Amino acid sequence: MVNSVRPYATPNDGPVVDFINTVFSTFNLTDIPLFLMLGGYLFISKLNRTTDLGNTLKKRFVRLGVPTLAWSLFYFVAFIIDRRLSHQTPDYLGNLKDWACLGKPGLGFHLWYMYALFIMEPAVTLVLRTFSRVRRISVIAVVWLLLAATVMSVVLSLRGEGDARVYFIVRGLTLAPYYIFGKALGDWVIGLDESRKRRVHTCSFWIWLLTLAFGVALHLYAPQALYSKLFAQAYLNFLMPYTALNAFALFTCVMTTHWNPSEKSKMFFASAAKLTFGVYLMRIILLLTMRAIVGHVLPESSFPRNVFIGTMTYLVSFGVTWILFRFPLTKRFVA
């Protein structure tokens, strides 16, 4: 929700909204690590040493890959049409290169996560099959993440380019440790008794809050030269130690939260969860459409307008996905 709805402040909004935007933007940096940790815990927990790994990965790719490829084609065609409507000559080779990066702002840029996932899961499962002990795997993951942060920081600084030019293959391999952390932390939390879970929950909440405050302070007060080279790049922020610690704390806090929902609540969330992949795939095109529609009514970019657009995009995305789920053919392409 934060990833979709966070307010993008404008100079006219003043210092208070600018500060709120900084908090949201810093909180937003945890989303990718948190998604990966949750995904790693849920996916890896289904595997064991007797699982047919090739068949499992093949089924997973078919289930997630077909909708991803279909929407990639849709976004690419929409991007070309948008270029022609704006009287710009499409650079097909350049557009394909941008598509391979899947990080450059534009139609379909959010799909880099899915392609990174297709690289990440085979790599992680191979490591898990090679090293069976969780403690040893966790140490490997820590070293892996630190090396990735160091190497990519140096490479991007020397190249003088933003993280838009980091190909999804590199993103998948460098962010893969979060998949392992999710499994290791999740198994550790599940093994705790209730009293220890409550203590861990309190402790992880305060660690999350403190690291969030540190991230906000870093974004507000870091020297401009340092900020522009490092912290302005979202991908590098995912690899930074304070982001990792923030994600670990939030993941642990979620895993230790005591919640006993009613059967109706379980059914509601299970039904909503089935629609979330479709929401993820289509939300960018709906976001741009919503911005164009609202722009005619509320042309002045402002904090309330951006929050309204983000919230409506989320609601409309759920509605459209629910409609597409009614038909077998369209359901196949919205997962």
Task: Summarize the structure in words.
With 335 residues, the chain is an all-alpha fold. The chain is 78% helix and 0% strand. The chain has 16 helices and no strands. The chain has helices at residues 2-5, 14-28, 31-44, 53-85, 92-101, 112-130, 134-159, 168-175, 177-190, 194-221, 224-231, 234-239, 241-255, 263-297, 303-324, 328-332. Helix 7 runs antiparallel to helix 9 and helix 14 (263-297) packs across helix 15 (303-324). The radius of gyration is 21 Å and the shape is globular. The mean pLDDT is 78.
Descriptive key words:
mainly alpha; 78% helix
Layout of SSEs?
Layout: H1 2-5, H2 14-28, H3 31-44, H4 53-85, H5 92-101, H6 112-130, H7 134-159, H8 168-175, H9 177-190, H10 194-221, H11 224-231, H12 234-239, H13 241-255, H14 263-297, H15 303-324, H16 328-332
Helix pairs in contact: 2-10, 3-9, 3-13, 4-6, 6-8, 7-9, 9-13, 10-13, 14-15
